[in-house]
Amino acid sequence: MALLETKNLKVYAGETEIVKGVSLTVQPGEVHVIMGQNGSGKSTLLNALAGHPKYSVKGSAEFDGKNLLALKPHERARAGMFLAFQSPNEISGVTLSAFLRRAYAARFGKEVSVAEFEKILRDKMKLLGMEPSFAERGVNEGFSGGEKKRSEILQLAVLEPRLALLDELDSGLDVDALSKIAQTLALIRKKETGIVIVTHYARILKGLHVDKVHVMKDGKIILSGDGRLANKLEEQGYAWAYKNAIED
Amino acid sequence: MDETILKEYGRDAALRKAPTGDAALHVGKKAQHTGLTIDIVKEISEVKGEPDWMREKRLESFRIFLSKPVPTWGPDLSHLNFDDIVGFVRPKGKENTSPNSWEEVPSEIKNTFERLGIPEAERKFLAGASVQYDSEVLYKSLRKSMTDLGVIFTDMDSAVREYPEIVKRYFMTKCVPATDNKFSALHGAFWSGGSFVYVPKGVKVPMPLQIYFMMNYPGFGQFEHTLIIAEEGAQVQYIEGCSAPHYTKDSMHAAVVEIFAHKNSRVRYTSIQNWSTNVYNLNTKRAMVYEDAVMEWVGGTLGSKVTMLYPCSMLMERGARAEHLNIAVAGAGQIKDNGAKIFHMAPDTSSKVVSKSICKQGGIVRYRGKLFVAKNALRVKSNVRCDTIIVDSESKAETIPVMDIRSKDAMIGHEASVGRISEEQLFYLMSRGIDAEEALSLVVRGFIEPIVKELPLEYAVEMNRLIEMEMEGSVG
């Protein structure tokens, strides 16, 4: 069974149609990359899949064979969906560790003691080369752009989702941070996690086997291919993709 | 202090205009125990076996009470019916002696604790504190080590009998005189219970002194008086927590807290109030802070129908410092009119205010602050920060900071923020598996965290629990 299967998915912000019928199938352990210029609907698609209340959705989307669209955002998360935010919100006064412990309990449906969770968190942080003090700061409170991304990656690593939706996780990061992301993704992929990456650049993909690349334009997937398509896009630009799509 | 300041401070001309004679004394007289009458004032004094000076003080206060109008500058108090408030109810089963061990505390009171869900650990902790049930202190036990230090921690009534020189000097004289406002006058006439803390020179009290206040009869007014005196170099923390079961008639709480922080002393007064939502909570709390002394107010006001509470720090001498931290939550039908008043009367004094308010389901929160800097008070520093979260569109928040700065070099900072909990914020938390209600409560807990972290652990736990309960049903 497919992990995620959308058919003719349309997403609206109020009256405006932003995603205009996307059909996407992600199998467990697959890595999909969605590329496209600003305003093509990539981020909206991911946010709608995670259940953002701003959007209304038509068409169908199944997660693990169940109707995704009937689930509230927190139910989607508990079922194993994870969205790494492009610009995550600040939750002032709530430490990252306290927040993650709640999220962990919700995700896995069991309470964990502070001590127990601290061990889990420490292990993941060590793996990602993070200082333990990082988790004692308020969630995204006064974080730099890079720190926000690192916080998202840490959350991803701790919550071990079944489907990870990554919204421009790579933007504004240096080479070291990028290699940490690639490492983390390779790790969760081994656990049959499906990954959908929205990105402008192919560089995040280095060292990561990509199964499918999709190009979005005006709310539609206009071209799909294997991993080589990403490199081709980087070399030739979107104009090439649009031309090919028309010929398709 | 010049005349205008004295007036602002509360000692206005009403004292001179107080009516005298029998006519004044019989205004509002009704059947015994159904209204606030001169007879009840006399009865209170008689039952307590008070000395003449206290009896006179009560009668004087009652005259002032009658002469003063209900204040109209704040929330609507027109539904407040003084005649429905019973001023003095002696708890059932109380004989001449107070119980002094947990076993002797009446079981109905224990049941009240049970119903309030006070955790086992906290109940045990109460064994080292004193508990006020209705008007009188029922249970009190002071650790011996404290007595050995010369610290006095007793109920206010006993203090009047046992320490008349100290009480006479400090009780509603310099700090909160009966003339201060209508409710302090009311309090002066009907006060009963409350605690008295005296810390001798140089003594640092090693643990917080704690007391619980409760109201348990319909229409029952409570007027407890707290008087805390820290002599030179002394240090003390005082904590009171208030909870009340729900009942139907409007009820009123008009407490007075007077604190004297003498030279180089340090006093922290912490209070969590959670009255049932029909209570008018109209308190007067003030501290006189002297040379290089530090006064800290930590407060949480939940529940109640109308709260008017503006703890005041009078920074009287060089180097005096005040810190005011407060959390206020207003829900359906509730008005929280609260803030801080700080009077910088001397040079090199400093103050800091952090106020965090939350309003939801049509509740109204108002920060009403007063900051005064006298002309000769040079090098004053003051920083006021008030943040408000408005949970839904029916609720309202207002900030009314009044500043009267007369010195030429005061450094004053004022920051205010009013925000809504954004959809984005809640979605972020929900996308991590946290449901809407918990997400909201998490955001709110984070918001008040800077103040909660100043509370002792068991209070912090209780505060967070109260906030969670308050937030239930807030998500549409």
Describe the structure.
In chain A, helix 3 (96-108) packs parallel to helix 5 (145-159) and helix 5 runs parallel beside helix 6. Chain A has helices at 42-50, 73-78, 96-108, 114-127, 145-159, 175-190, 228-236, 238-247, and strands at 4-13, 16-26, 31-36, 55-63, 66-67, 81-84, 91-95, 138-139, 163-167, 194-198, 212-217, 220-225. Chain A is built from eight helices and twelve strands. Chain A has a domain at 4-88 and 162-247: 3-Layer(aba) Sandwich (Rossmann fold). Chain A is α/β, with parallel strands linked by helices and 248 residues long. Chain B is α/β, with parallel strands linked by helices. Chain B folds into two domains: 3-309, no CATH class; 422-476, no CATH class. In chain B, 27% of the residues lie in helices and 32% in strands. Chain B has helices spanning 3-9, 14-17, 21-25, 38-47, 52-67, 107-116, 120-126, 144-148, 156-162, 164-170, 182-190, 423-430, 436-452, 457-471; strands spanning 130-133, 136-140, 152-155, 195-199, 209-213, 225-230, 235-243, 251-253, 256-261, 266-275, 279-282, 284-289, 294-303, 306-309, 312-315, 321-330, 335-338, 341-344, 350-359, 364-373, 381-390, 396-405, 411-420. In chain B, strands 3, 4, 6, 8, 9, 11, 12, 14, 15, 17, 18, 20 and 22 form a 13-stranded mixed beta sheet that branches. Chain B is globular, with a radius of gyration of 22 Å. Chain B starts with a helix and ends in a 5-residue tail after the last helix.
